[in-house]
Every structure is written in C-alpha cells, then in structure tokens.
Amino acid sequence: MVLPALDIPADRAADSRRVSITRSVSTSPTATFMSPPSSFSGARKASVKHLKPFNTGDIKILLLENVNQTGRDILLKQGYQVEFLKSSLPEDKLIEKIRDVHVIGIRSKTKLTANVLREAKNLIVIGCFCIGTNQVDLQYAADHGIAVFNSPFSNSRSVAELVIGEIIALARQLGDRSNELHQGIWNKVSKGCWEVRGKTLGIIGYGHIGSQLSVLAEAMGMSVIYYDIVNLMALGTSKQVPDLGVLLGEADFVTCHVPELPETQRMIGPKQFEQMRTGSYLINASRGSVVDIPALIDAMRTGKVAGAALDVYPNEPAGNGNYFHNDLNTWAEDLRSLKNLILTPHIGGSTEEAQSAIGIEVGEALVRYVNEGVTLGAVNMPEVNLRSLTLEDSDHIRVIFIHQNIPGVLRKVNEILGDHNVDKQMTDSRGDVAYLMADISNVDHNGVRELYEELESLNSCIKTRILY
Questions:
Q1: CB–CB of 424/386 below 8 Å?
Q2: CB distance 64 to 135 below 8 Å
Q3: One of 72, 102, 277, 287 is an active-site residue; which one?
Q4: Which residues contact 366 (CB under 8 A, 6 or more apart)?
Q5: Is residue 26 a contact partner of residue 376, using CB atoms and an 8 Å limit?
Q6: Closest among 312, 340, 315, 310 to 325, alpha carbons compared
Q7: Which listed residue (260, 316, 453, 454) is catalytic?
Q8: Which candidate in 3, 236, 376, 429 could, as Cys together with 434 as Cys, close a disulfide (CB 3.0–4.6 Å)?
Q9: What is the DSSP string of 108-160?
Q10: Which long-range contacts (CB under 8 A, 24 or more apart) does 212-215 make?
Q11: Is 305 helix (H, G, I), strand (E, B) or coil?
C-alpha cells in the first residue's frame, strides 16, 4: 500500500505533540550483540518489511560536538537531512538551531535543558553519543514524548586503560619527570616511586568500567577491592567491601567510576581524604562533581595524598582553547601548581575504537526509533518493541502512542482501535509516562487520518506517531 503523506499542520498546540508519517521501504535490526540469531527458528522466516519515514528528506538531524563518522554515515544512509558541527553551541544559538529538527545528536558538552527543549517543537529523539545523560533534562524530555538514547558500554575499555596508565604514571611520578626533562632538567630519583605490583586498588563503582579495570589491575599483580551500593559478583579475586570508609582505609590507589547523582555530589571530600591512607593516590574519570577539588588540593599540599589524576571537572569548556584557568573554576591555578598531578581534558573515552563503537550504537538506535518506534535502550522511556512487519503485511500501519500514565487510557485507546484488526500490541510505563505500540491491518488513507486525530484528541496524549 502506497499512501501519500497526510496533510498534518506543522504547528501544534503548546504541548508540542507531533505526528511522524512513515511507510514501508527498509528495515533495521532489533537484535543486539547479546542476542545472536538462532538457526533453530522452527518456522519459515518471512522477509522483513522495513518501516521508514515517508519522505526521509523531511527528517532533519543536527549533530554537534564532532560525532564520529560511523554515526553520521548510518544517518546519512537513511536519506535524512543531516547537519554536522564540530563543536557545541551556546544556548541562544542552540535554541535557534533546534527549533525545526526532529533528531539531535550530542556528546557531553551540550546542555539540553528544559529551556532549550521547550523550543524544540519537532523533536522526537535525542542521541547522546557518550555514556552520560546528565546533560539532558530527562524528565522534561519524557514528559514531552522525546526519547533519549546513549551508549553506556562502548567506551568502558578505553576509560579502564586510561586509569591503568595513570596508576603506573602516578606511582612512578612520570608526569613530573617528563615535565622536568622538557625544561632541560635531569632529575633521576627513586624516592617516592613504587611498583604497582602488590598494591591495593580500591574501585568506587563496580559497573562496566570498574569491573574491566578490576581484571586489568589483577593482571598486573594488584589486589582489588571495590565498593558499590548493590551487591555485585566479584571478578577474579577482587573483594567487595561493606562501605566507602573501609575502601578508603585499605586502598593504595582509589579510583571513582560512579554516575552524577545527588548522592555522589562531592562524594570524596575532606572527611574522605582523612580516611585515605597517607601517601595514597586518587583518580577520577567519572564526573567532575564527585570530588571536592579544593579539599583535594589541601590533601595533596599536606602530603596526605601523594598524587592524583583528574579527567573531569565541575565546569568544563565548551570547546578547545586556553580556557582552563580561574575564570572557569576558581581553584584552577592552585590545582595546576601541584606536583604529581595528571590533568587531562575529559578524554577517558576519546579513542578511535570507542568513538567508532559509540557512533554505531547510538546511530542505529536513532534509526530504529525514527523508523520503527523501538525504544529498546532508551534511558527515559519504557522499553517497548514489536517483531518486525513482513513484506506480506502491505496494508499495515504501526501506531505509536505516548501518553500520561493515568487510569482509563488503554480502554479509550482500544475503543479507537477497536474498529480495526490489531495484529499485535504492547504497552509499558515508566513513572508518569506510558508507551504503546500497535500494528493494525486493513487501514486505508482516511482511516490513518481518523486514527491520528482521535488519538490526539485524548486528554492523556503526549505524542502520536503513525508509521507505515
């Protein structure tokens, strides 16, 4: 069935509800690397029918912060309009750009606040080409039917390897010796320089990065302990400790791998530095708010902490340049004056391998959402998926209905869909937002219009999309 695009007005009411009209021309896979295809399917597999925007050129995408070429290629291959910028944008310019885009891709510097998202009248999805999503107002996005995807695992190895390198560099004071020799100073010393073999590494946060780091550290002969808010299976001979204080008192090296949450704000402060072993080392490659940096400066000046490595900071520049000074963070010059301190510009995941993998993972998630409405991997929406339509399903449409999670909605939706054959349907909720996906058959052009208008008229409606 080939249907013309519906004549839906571009401007919507204040709630910014939108319709996305699509038809069937291509597919995107729904399986992940954790779900390999089975050769024991049992039944004949029909050719998959692929949903895609009716006019791919109408899908406008804005990519900021030098998103990797792999992600750009995936989106360009779909025929979308893709605008690519190497840097982030200040809020006023971001608001101007975001007003007419359907998809935005960012990394860690772009701040998608409620003030910015309020202007994004056409936006249906956000792709965070990084681990974190704290730069996005997730609740506002969910409340307005905007899905958010990220790449929580793809740069884990890169960060773990950086931390291993920093552990060795701090133990041997390599940064100081290198800087001295660059200035022509020959300073061959062994005092205060150590092997890492036999030392104890304390990992705060035993997730994807922390657990990989654990394996690498044990391979170098280190003992590993870790603290996490949930009980997790230890890898190798590592051991979980009951609280943060125990970890700080036993570890020679302490490394942070936690998300930015209210409970992790200044998680390492004056009290925690007092609990650390004298002459120990601190590494933070998680979030800049986790460590109280003025307290770290004091701890290093007194010798309590023998060295530190920081890859993240409370305030970070939006682009490259001469910005890391007191105008950005009031303690920056004091921090820069310290010895045996490694400062890097948030490069934990900045490897070719990690950025390529992130580009693929997030790019494919965006295509699946735009083309098929699949929310698997979304961080602020219920995760809903339906098996793909087949080429035999020529007169089918897919209805996506994002709505407030209140009583009675499904009854009203099913009354609207009741005049049609609902082949399959799935719904789930997450907090105040619910997500319904249904494939229905035997729908003509007028039926599509009627369905859309009836769903949009429901008081509970946040956003309606119809794909065909």
A1: yes
A2: no
A3: 287
A4: 61, 74, 75, 103, 105, 125, 127, 149
A5: no
A6: 315
A7: 316
A8: 429
A9: SS--B-HHHHTT-TT--EEEESSS--TTB-HHHHHHTT-EEE--SSTTHHHHH
A10: 212/156, 212/157, 212/160, 213/159, 213/160, 213/163, 213/164, 213/255, 213/257, 214/238
A11: strand
Alpha-carbon radius of gyration of the chain:
26
Q: Which helix (H) or strand (E) holds 204?
A: strand 200-204
pLDDT reported for residue 449: 83
Q: Kind of pairing, strands 397-404 and 305-310?
A: unpaired
Alpha-carbon torsion (161, 365, 414, 456), positive or negative: positive
Place of tokens 């933070």: 284
Q: CA-CA distance, 57 to 54, in Å (whole number)?
A: 9
What is d(CA 335, CA 390) in angstroms, rounded to the nearest whole number? 60
Catalytic residue among 72, 107, 208, 346: 346
What SS3 state is found at 84? Answer: strand
Question: Which one-letter amino acid corresponds to residue 162?
Answer: L
Collapsing DSSP to helix, strand or coil, 281 comes out as strand
Task: Look up residue 463 and give its DSSP letter.
Answer: E
Alpha carbon 456 to its chain's center:
30
Q: Rounded to whole angstroms, how far apart are CA atoms 262 and 49?
A: 45
Residue 421 has a pLDDT of 86
192: three-class secondary structure by DSSP: coil
Question: How far is it, in rounded angstroms, from Cα 310 to Cα 256?
Answer: 10
Q: Is 44 a catalytic residue?
A: no
Tokens read off for 228: 């996490």
Q: What pLDDT, on a 0 to 100 scale, did the predictor assign at position 5?
A: 38
Residues forming a β-bridge with 81 = 60
Domains plus CATH for the chain? Answer: 21-153+353-467 (3.40.50.720), 156-343 (3.40.50.720)
Judge contact between 361 and 151, C-beta under 8 A. yes
Is 316 in the active site? yes
Average predicted confidence (pLDDT) for the chain: 88
| pLDDT less than 70: residues of the chain | 1-57, 389-394
Residue 13: predicted pLDDT: 39
The confidence score (pLDDT) of residue 448 equals 84
Q: How big is the chain, counted in residues?
A: 468
pLDDT of residue 49: 52
Name which of 457, 448, 447 is nearest 409 in CA terms.
457
* Closest residue by Cα to residue 434 from 458, 451, 467: 458
* pLDDT given at position 320: 87
Q: Enter the tokens of residue 147.
A: 């899905």
CA atoms within 13 A on the CB side of 295: 16
